[in-house]
Structure formats: C-alpha cells, structure tokens
C-alpha cells in the first residue's frame, strides 16, 4: 500500500468508511471484480495462485480445476474488500455478521474444564472474524506484525483490537504474552499456515510439497495443557455473512517438532478441503526463508 501523506489520511479514511457502510452483498460483488483485476495484473500473484491450487490435488485437471480457479479468484477479491466493513463498522454490527457456529460447544466444554484455548485459524474465508467474534465473548490474545505503512498499521490496529482482543508483537515478548494468557485459561489465536522465520520452524509436507511450518502451537500446548482447535470463518454466499466452524484436535500434538508440524499441516489440509475456493492460494507457502535449511538436502541442517 503506498504511503499516504498526513493531510490526505482523513479523506482516505472518509472514503473507506463510506465503503464500509455498503451492503455486504454489494461489497462481495465488487470483490469478485477486484479479484479478477488483481489476477490479471502484472506480477507473480496469478501464477502462484494457479500453481498452488492445481498442485494441491483438490481438483481434476480440466474443467474441474478451471471452475475451482474461477471461484478462488472471486473469493480472493472478496477477502480484500470485506476488510472495510469488518474493520470499520461499529463492533456490535461486525459481530452480528456471524450468522452461526458449528462445534463451538467443544470450546465451551474446554473452558468449563479450566483449560486455555488455542484457536488455529488458517487463511480461509474471513479469518479476521475469528478473533473479533471470540473477543466479543471472552479475552483473546493474538500476535501482530505491524505493516511498514503507518496509516495501514493504525487502520489494522483499530479494526482488530476491539472487544476483549489484545494484540502482541511477533517476538519473544509476544510468545510470553500468549503463554501467560493460556495459563490464565484464556484464548489465543495462531495462524498455522504462515511461513516460519528461519530457525523457528521445520519442514513438513503441505499438500505434497515442503512448507516451512511454525512450531509454536505444540510448544504452547505442551507447557500449558491447553485445548487446541482448528477454526475457519466460512464466507457465506450472496453476502449473507459468515459461519464459524470449529474442529477439535483429537489428541495432543506430539513433542517432536517435525511430527507436530506434520499433524498441524494435515489438520490445515483437512479444513481447506471443506472450503477449497476460500483458501488463500496466492500466499507463497512453500518459499524457503533466510536461515532455513534446504528441504531437499538432508545434510543441510
């Protein structure tokens, strides 16, 4: 996002707030158009989206993959445009965009048993709704990496840190804050399908290709005995809102980092299969970050 001069910020924010007031069905329609504009724009976005989607094995070559690709392009555009209402509408109205939940009783049961809660939310649908909805009910802590643009940073903080939500840095102090939250039997949020920084992850298969996977979830669960759940915010058709789906882990994650990463990626894959068009396929999930070993060279460790 280009740097916005201070004297223009109020006008830009005014425009954003006007967009936020538009009906969600209209915004999602605009999002479909935006998705195609982004797809056809110069850059690596379209090639990465196609390659990640087609290599996933979730569709058969030909018409089936083309149909899924068209849907994924539109959903990617919706993911961008819906940030305006999600971040800028009054908080009570944003929470009401969640039209239902499935599996939430498992979270309630874990809280009743005095456990901390780890919500593992892949980049599916409107994942921004997860922390906003949970924070309307109970305390919630999530990590946050500030963008370089100060205006965007202010916008994201105002949109995300509402209700009982607390954002903490993506560093050691943030890990300590999440650990403390779990020890208080509160909830934290983790994005499991981001590329880990060099030295903070392990290579594990993700849809058949190596992905440098964070190891934080297993460590936090082992230290606190927290209950972990995969969660996805499904984007309902025709702008009707969102539905939160909760999928409990059937057993604690293994102590071995690689084994735990394999389990996490398998869990993410299972959730993606429920909503394949709404996954963020354009993300460079398989890149090798600086400091990470070569996934194809066993001697590079």
Number of domains: 1
Structural class: alpha/beta
Please give the alpha-carbon distance between the first and last residues: 37 Å
Q: Kindly report the average pLDDT value.
A: 93
**Major sheet summary line:** 7 strands, mixed
Shape: globular
Task: Give me the secondary-structure topology.
Elements: H1 6-20, H2 24-40, H3 45-54, H4 63-81, H5 83-88, H6 91-95, E1 98-102, H7 104-112, E2 117-120, H8 128-135, E3 140-144, H9 150-160, E4 165-169, H10 172-183, E5 187-190, E6 201-206, E7 209-214, H11 216-224, E8 227-235, E9 242-248, H12 257-274
Distinctive features:
single chain, 301 residues, alpha/beta, Glycerol-3-phosphate (1)-acyltransferase, seven-stranded mixed sheet, two-stranded antiparallel sheet, 12 helices, 9 strands, globular
Explain this structure.
By secondary structure, the protein is of the alpha/beta class. The chain has a single domain (6-278), classed as Glycerol-3-phosphate (1)-acyltransferase (3-Layer(aba) Sandwich), CATH 3.40.1130. Helices cover 46% and strands 17% of the residues. It is built from twelve helices and nine strands. It has helices at residues 6-20, 24-40, 45-54, 63-81, 83-88, 91-95, 104-112, 128-135, 150-160, 172-183, 216-224, 257-274; strands at residues 98-102, 117-120, 140-144, 165-169, 187-190, 201-206, 209-214, 227-235, 242-248. Strands 1-9-8-2-5-3-4 form a seven-stranded mixed sheet. A hairpin with a 6-residue loop joins β8 and β9. α2 (24-40) packs across α4 and α10 (172-183) runs parallel beside α11 (216-224). The longest helix is centred in the N-terminal third of the chain and has 19 residues, at 63-81. The radius of gyration is 19 Å and the shape is globular. It starts with 5 loop residues before the first helix and ends in a 27-residue tail after the last helix. The model has no long low-confidence stretch (mean pLDDT 93).
